[in-house]
Amino acid sequence: MNNIVILPIIIPMILGLIMVIFRRRIMLHRVLSILSMTGTGGAAAYLIYQVKHEGIQTLQLGGWEAPFGVSMVVDMLSALLLITTSIVALFCVIYAFKSIGREREEHYFYPLFLFLITGVNGSFITGDVFNLFVCFEVMLISSYALITLGGKSIQLRESIKYVLVNIIASFLFLIAIAYLYAVTGTLNMAHLSERVAEVGQGGLMTAVAIIFLFVFSLKAGLFLFFWLPGSYSAPPTAVAAVFAALLTKVGIYAIYRFFTLVFYHEPQVTHLIIGIMAAVTMVLGAMGAIAYKDIKKILTYNVVVGVGFILAGLASFTDAGMTGSIYYLMHDMVIKALIFIIGGVIIAIAGTSNLDDMSGLIQTHPYLGWMFFITALSISGIPPLSGFIGKVYITEGTFTSGYYWLGAIGLITSLMVLFSVMKIFMNSFWGETILSEEMEKGTTRGVMFPIVALVMLTIGLGLGAELLHDYVEIAVEGLMNPSLYIEAVLGGNAQ
Amino acid sequence: MESLMSILIGVFFAIGTYLILTKSLLRIILGTSIISHGVHLLIITMGGVKAGGPPLLGLGSTSFTDALPQALILTAIVINFATTAIFLVLSYRSYKVLGTDDTAQMRGNEDE
Question: What parts of the sequence cross the membrane (chain B) (predicted)?
């Protein structure tokens, strides 16, 4: 029992509710948003410390012992994701101060943002399948509001698809929960894991597993990413950045949780399917990233490639692959927020997102240019930046488990990713300067701080990978040994 | 009882799917609404539709009905209510801004 476990959910929720009351006090909104992100970050840091020294932390809500009540569980994977979420969200919200505009701020941008974070954190923490569904819905409903906020015609058009796809995915989630409950008679994840291990993962359980995989793939953009490029290029940059950094990651986290804790008995079926889906995702995403000449489209397809690559680590189902995935997951959250923010700044300056219409920005914005260059190297995994270590481990994992094709596709697509981001760099920053400072539509004033901070973070994650290794190791140990999780949640009630 | 419910759920899903595949936004929303009813019935059927006393001590029943699926449905209904509301508002706003409720005409073009 540890009450700190609930803090990452209730801090943003309560502060968000307070904000709703004071609608016109924008300064208050900004201060509270920063407070909320630092607060959840602090709680997450303390949880990491506790998990490292005392093992997995749990909270049984209302004092109802698991498996009867709703359990909140923080293991090392959750804690690492929580702290990364807090940091990334903090910088996205600081970027939003200067870029989102008064109109949106007055229409509850910050409260909606905090409710989104509530849902994301809740999904990372919860230890109950139905509660996971609820947290998903909290996150999704906030995201429906955020994606339409502003009401431009492109936003409305894209959000209709986004909302419809997610509503149907939610129905499928409920159907999967119903089937799972019918077969196992429980919804607590630790209890589920125990029961599935007892009765064995037969054909029926594997079928249920595939439905869950389908649901989470829709959310994560694994193979079923047809909705993603349109929806993520419609909203303003600050929103798109946080979507790209966090929303797909929640789906990925759910896949990880389910296929390491509950459905891990038939890896030759489920994990092979994940591997194939990951491979197809990487190839299609990389093709999209190369094909388009629009910055927003290129970046959203890069999100898709990242999803495929992270899940390649899960498909390998080895220690090395998992280690790589966790490194890469944290890297991907930071780097996707960063590259979306820089992309947004470039678009704001040039006044267009078409690469053909911009060139020579390095003359007027040298710092921005070199920041983008570092980001581009990091996103494709050039050492010593943060993408490298994850790529090495994931590739090692896929080779160890015999999925050579998966590792090869991962490496080839990272070259394609490098090409796609270098295309942005060369087209927008090199060449003749066609835009004098007076003609610029936007400015970098005030937005450089989050960019610099995130660039430092990606360099830090790369150079400090050794320091992080202890923590990642604990997370991998937790993923590969479901008994630790079960023991922590059920404790004396374990059968 | 269970097989009857299964057929009913199937009918709900068929109607809902048909409506979602049409072009009019309002029909799509109604389709999601009907599928949601199918899903809720599915949950209650999966929990087991059997005669039993209420799950309270001291009533002298020997068998109890599982209360959990009903709690799940209650939550699911509330959430579905919220998403349907937001979807309706969204479609009304897009009808006003885009001037159409036909999804085939909502593709847009590159120059926006």
Answer: 6-21, 28-47, 67-90
- pLDDT grade, residue A357 (50/70/90)? confident
For residue A493, pLDDT over 60 is answered with no
Closest in A134, A163, A171 to B87, CB measured: A163
B2-50+65-101 folds as Helix Hairpins (1.10.287)
Q: What is the pLDDT of residues A321-331, one digit of tens each?
A: 999 999 999 99
Tens digit of pLDDT for each residue in A51-93? 999 999 999 988 888 888 899 999 999 999 999 999 999 999 9
SS3 at position A430: coil
Instruction: Kindly list the residues of chain B whose beta carbon comes within 8 Å of any beta carbon in chain A.
Output: 20, 25, 28, 32, 35-36, 39-40, 42-43, 45-48, 68-69, 72, 75-76, 79, 82-83, 86-87, 90-91, 93-94, 97-98, 103, 106-108, 112
Which of B46, B65, B103, B109 is the mutation pick for testing A, counting most A CBs within 10 A? B46
A164 touches chain B (CB under 8 A): yes
Taking residue B91's Cβ as centre, other Cβ atoms within 10 Å add up to 21
List the domain boundaries for chain A. Answer: 290-463
Picking from A198, A339, A176, the residue whose alpha carbon sits closest to that of residue A254 is: A176
Name every residue whose Cβ is closer than 8 Å to that of residue A76 and which is 6 or more positions away in sequence. A48, A51, A52, A56, A471, A472, A474, A475, A478
CA distance A462 to A146: 32
Tokens 């409305």 -> residue: A156
How much is the pTM?
0.94
| N-term to C-term CA, chain B | 54
Beta carbons of A374 and A385 less than 8 angstroms apart: yes
Q: Quick check: A303 and A232 in contact, CB under 8 A? A: yes
pLDDT in tens, A177-207: 999 999 998 999 999 999 999 888 888 999 9
Q: What is the CA radius of gyration of chain A?
A: 22
Helix or strand (DSSP H, E) at A64: none
